Amino acid sequence: xxxxxxxxxxxxxVVLTARHVIMNxxxxxxxxxxxxxxxxxxxxxxxxxVAILEPENTEGLRVVQLASFKSSRLKIGERVESCGFGxxxxxxxxxxxxxxxx
Length: 102
Known about the structure:
Structural class: mainly beta
Number of strands: 7
Oligomer: single chain
Strand order of the largest sheet: 1-2-5-4-3
């Protein structure tokens, strides 16, 4: 069991999750509102513990809109912060600083 988020990746709708959740599976299932949806594993990265899955049926899945620097209202010199477990040591990391360029 694990968690993930549904995002749009080009023309595809995919699920972004942790690699350790799917281990070495080629086909996995996600649960959404009491139903199972079969997914194909598009890619994994062991070092960063990330996996990208493609659901066979995307009906009813709520797609998260990812922000990008081009679509955001950030300005040079503004403070930005991030936190999460996105590192090979699986330790919580937090970052903050001033936006210099993008």
